[in-house]
Amino acid sequence: MSEDAKSLIETAVRNFLAEVPALAPMKLVVGIDLRGRGDTQQYRLQLPELQVTKDIAADARIRLDMRREFFNAMAHDAHVPDWIEAFTYGQAKASGVDQYMRLISSVVDKQQERARTRKARH
Question: What does the alpha-carbon distance between residue 43 and residue 31 come to, in Å, rounded to a whole number?
Fold first, then answer.
């Protein structure tokens, strides 16, 4: 049973922003390509208002590319370390403006460091 991709993208982004709230106010357009059996579904994600539309996203600053089955599995249960691992091992790919990529990477790394130190104290 698969949900529609728009709601899965919204769920995944909400979960990600809940773990990395510093990225929530960022104004950004992301193009998402979900590759299936013989086709590619393209979506446009606009932040911070979290609008997902089925569109080519010609104005996207960042493009994400991954298999549809992989995205379906990750959308509900994945946490930030799972996404980091997916991008590290090539199951998901990101490309785009280098400044945005470095900013997002830096903010995620700092959030992960805060989460690790918080757990160590308790």
Answer: 6
